[in-house]
Prior knowledge:
The chain is α+β, with helices and mostly antiparallel strands. It contains three helices and two strands; from the N terminus they run αββαα. It is 46% helix and 21% strand. It is elongated, with a radius of gyration of 23 Å.
Amino acid sequence: MNRFRVMIISGLFILFFMKYSAIWYTFSGETMGTTYSIKVKVPRYLPREKVETKIDAIFSSYTATFSTYDPKSELSNLNIINRTSPIEISEDLF
């Protein structure tokens, strides 16, 4: 009977830990001429600022590759009409 109690208590602890070990963060903003809203569930120990920094880095990378608003983006560079020489593109743009 003791073993059964330990299993029950362990199971309840795991359920409690799983439920309360994560937190939801919501981020919103503007990028590439549109808006975004992101809701993400992350481990509780992960600070909001670190998650936001990662999201900003992802959007910066997308902008550098795909933006039609940024004349220095990879896509804008590819779209130059008078280009006569080959251009190397990233795997993401390919």
